[in-house]
Design a protein that fits this description.
Elements: H1 2-38, H2 51-59, H3 62-68, H4 78-85, H5 89-101, E1 105-108, E2 116-119, H6 122-126, H7 136-150, H8 182-187, E3 192-196, H9 198-205, E4 215-220, H10 221-229, E5 233-236, H11 238-250, E6 254-257, E7 265-269, H12 275-281, E8 294-298, H13 308-312, E9 318-321, E10 324-327, E11 347-351, H14 364-374, H15 380-396
Antiparallel strand pairs: 1-2, 3-4, 3-5, 4-7, 6-7, 8-11, 9-10
Length: 399
């Protein structure tokens, strides 16, 4: 009897030790994952509360956290990642497909070829891919983390997103580049999708937000294919994409593509739900933070003080004084929502001075490199080292 009890005690102690080791290993995995994410272009800043670690534990099982760290910013085949992770190629391919469906990594699918996989950053990245899977606890964690993530300082010079005007606000007097027109961006692509806005969905989950359309975020090309393949949105036509842009103007939504001349998405954003716009509103001069080539101009002589511009503005750039609108141009982000509905045509968009014109990278790769360099995380040396490592692993990996 005593022997049996002693044996059971030892088993219980051994089980407890194993559990403690598992917890310790898991904690270490998440610490390393946080460091891995912080080394990506947009970063993953730490907090005193540790809320960012709670988000990681919710989204990444320990085995996914460990495996995700084998991916880099360079798209690679499963066989290359399998070599790095020291597992069979078929197992790596299966796990990569599963983790991609969770929205935690990125992929490029090619016809009659093996897909390529690469690391995804927190935002804009795998957080947005949690759309339709939110719950109040996860949203509260994200809300708590928003201030820290958006106050890292680099957004001022190298924002991940930019603002373009709604079509009706662009006058024939303005010389507008194709990448500054939403409709031109749509016409440049052949495949399209629409998904729910995660920001609006977040606010709805916790009983806040507005009644503007939730299904409102557009994706193009490779991004559209990914969204549809993983069930996060639906494929739509070019015509429906253009209709969604028109609806955005009518409902007072700001158009924000990713900061590239050839963007992969356009978000339609409101100042009460969008994490970016909500953060920008906290600054006294949002115009200096946002990448936008225009700002509004007000003719006070013809203004009748109807106040519609103040209702439409998502940055609180207008107020009424003595039955006239007053514009604080330093709060204007050049979205054009005030211009398109001004009944007296007292408002117009004008191009900012040349010194204030934002630099717009060619594509999302160039944007990420620029953001990474601004944070000191993606210098020339690291880029070269990453490329050499990837090339070596491709050469040595099983065919």
């Amino acid at each position: 009897m005593f022997i049996k009890e002693d044996t059971e005690t030892r088993r219980a102690e051994a089980s407890l030790v194993c559990e403690e080791r598992r917890v310790a290993m898991a904690t270490d995995v998440y610490e390393r994952l946080a460091k891995h994410l912080d080394d990506l272009p947009a970063g993953f800043p730490r907090t005193e509360s540790g809320v960012e670690m709670r988000i990681l534990r919710r989204l990444f099982p320990p085995e996914d956290a460990e495996f995700a760290m084998h991916l880099t910013l360079i798209p690679e085949e499963p066989r290359v990642i399998a070599r790095r992770a020291k597992i069979p190629v078929n197992e790596a391919a299966r796990r990569l497909e599963e983790i991609e469906k969770k929205g935690l990594i990125l992929s490029i699918h090619r016809e009659n070829k093996s897909p390529l996989y690469l690391a995804s950053q927190f935002a804009v990245g795998f957080w947005e891919s949690q759309v339709n899977k939110l719950d109040p606890e996860l949203v509260q964690n994200a809300e708590e983390y928003l201030d820290t993530f958006m106050k890292t300082g680099f957004w001022r010079g190298t924002p991940q997103m930019r603002t373009i005007p709604v079509n009706k606000s662009i006058s024939i007097e303005n010389v507008v580049m194709p990448y500054e027109r939403a409709e031109e961006l749509v016409h440049a692509h052949k495949s399209f999708s629409v998904s729910n806005c995660i920001c609006r969905q977040e606010r709805h989950v916790i009983g806040k937000g507005c009644d503007r359309p939730e299904e409102s975020c557009l994706q193009f090309g490779m991004a559209a294919d990914t969204v549809v393949r993983n069930g996060r949105g639906r494929a739509i036509s070019m015509e429906e994409s253009l209709e969604i842009l028109q609806r955005a103007e009518k409902t007072g939504l700001v158009l924000q593509p990713n900061n590239a001349k050839d963007p992969l998405f356009i978000c339609t954003c409101c100042g009460c739900c969008c994490g970016v716009l909500r953060s920008l509103k906290n600054y006294p001069e949002p115009a200096k933070m946002v990448a936008s080539p225009f700002w509004a101009s007000l003719d006070t002589d013809t203004c009748k003080g109807c106040g519609l511009c103040a209702k439409r503005c998502q940055m609180e750039a207008f107020h009424l004084d003595n039955k006239k609108s007053v514009l604080d141009v330093n709060r204007c982000i050049g979205c054009g929502l005030c211009v398109s509905t001004c009944p007296t045509h007292s408002l117009s968009l004008v191009r900012k001075p040349k010194a204030m014109q934002p630099y717009v990278p060619k594509d999302i790769i160039a944007t990420n490199i620029r953001v990474g360099k601004a944070r000191g995380k993606l210098g020339t040396g690291r880029l070269i080292s990453m490329q050499i490592r990837s090339k070596l692993d491709r050469l040595l990996a099983s065919k």
